[in-house]
Amino acid sequence: MGIFSKVKNLFKKEEIKENDNEVDNEKEIKIENKEIDKKEKKKKKEKEHEKEVIKLYDEGLSKSRDNFVNKLISLNNRTKKITDEYFMELEDILIMADIGVNTVLSFIERLKKRVKTENITDLNYLQEVIVDELFIIYVDNSILTNKINFNPNGPTVILFVGVNGVGKTTTIGKIANKLINEGKSVMMVAGDTFRAGAIEQLEEWSKKVNASFVKGKEGSDPSSVIYDGVKKAKEEGIDVILIDTAGRLQNKVNLMKELEKMNKVIGSLIEEAPQETLLVIDATTGQNGISQAKHFKEITNITGIVLTKLDGTAKGGIVLAIKEELDIPVKYIGLGEKVNDLESFDIEKYIYGLFKDMM
User: Fold this and answer.
1) Three-class SS of residue 334?
2) If 0-12 CB within 10 Å is exposed, 13-18 middle and 19+ buried, where does residue 51 land?
3) Which of 19, 115, 198, 263 is the most buried (most CB within 10 A)?
4) Does the structure show a pLDDT above 70 at 15?
5) Is 118 in a helix, a strand, or coil?
6) Phi then psi for 339, rounded to 5 degrees?
7) Nearest-angstrom CA–CA distance, 223 and 266
8) What is the pTM of this model?
């Protein structure tokens, strides 16, 4: 019911003339007005944020768009007829975009079938079909979500894994900032005890975003530090615990044992934790990043990918390769250097950012 109807109903009451009731009704109207004003402000803020996010995707994927889409448009402008040569050149363009050889080969086969079945001859329409099919690669035959699996019965534990140098610590800081802005309390735990630099960097981020912080001595047992951190977070009623880990993939056996121990320690304090194990990949490393993901998937249960530095590569097709080859959802993407330039992954905004010039 709107404010106008509420006011009309108020004036129908027989007791409206009494001073107490008049004061109460005036208060009610003011409260209603405030509530509507809050909702309108919230909607306006959400719309503004949506525009900002779209702009981030647009600008962040500009290198990939210039490299990939411009070549695709050039191919279509030079082509008069859809031939085997056209598909071969398209295949090269897609592989160069880092979509991955296996993904590209299956994609080209599906595209050829659609061209034959639908008798497609119009190259402009074929462009739309290409975008459509690339979108299907990500969403077809599986349920992938970019949402974090928050624990309804206590602290949510998010474990971060990834090789050194991919931006893991910075990512934790940015995600902490995002969660704090959403009204959640956050604790960072320095589980990478083998690098003093990693501990110091994480501590700096905790100060920057106003998050709690737990660390141990350099070289101490990571699981012991994590135990202390999780225990403290439970006692303080912290909403989300973000745990950094060492990225020594060259020694997979030791890393697997270390991660198993961490998981047991966390699970002993919080049921069904960690709720998320996020693998951080540097998008600029391309197929090497995919290889890292495969190795980590062998040694621990990865629930999501954080793709950093997507704005720094001309090969944004890696998002599609991750889905096709690993079947793990991309949960966050880094689209810049600033603290707010980390966004929850949105396939529709990604497709828009990548193919904007073709739409």
Assistant:
1) strand
2) exposed
3) 198
4) no
5) coil
6) -60, -30
7) 9
8) 0.84
Q: Using the structure block, give the residue that is written with the tokens 């085997």.
A: 84
Backbone CA torsion sign across 166, 214, 303, 53: negative
Q: What percent of the chain has pLDDT over 70?
A: 89
Residue type, 250: Q
> What distance in Å separates the CA atoms of residue 148 and residue 103, rounded to the nearest whole number?
27
Residue linked to tokens 């296996």: 102
What is the per-residue pLDDT across 250-278, written as a single tens digit (0 to 9) for each?
Answer: 677 888 899 999 999 999 999 999 999 99
Q: How many other C-beta atoms can be found within 10 angstroms of the C-beta atom of residue 170?
A: 19
Distances (CA, A) of 207 to 190, 222, 312, 343, 349: 14, 22, 27, 21, 32
Give helix 318-326 / helix 287-299 axis angle, nearest 10°. Answer: 30
Which structure tokens are listed for 150? 């928050």
Q: CA angle, 88 as apex, 83 and 93 as ends, to 5°? A: 125
Helix (H) or strand (E) holding 276: strand 276-282
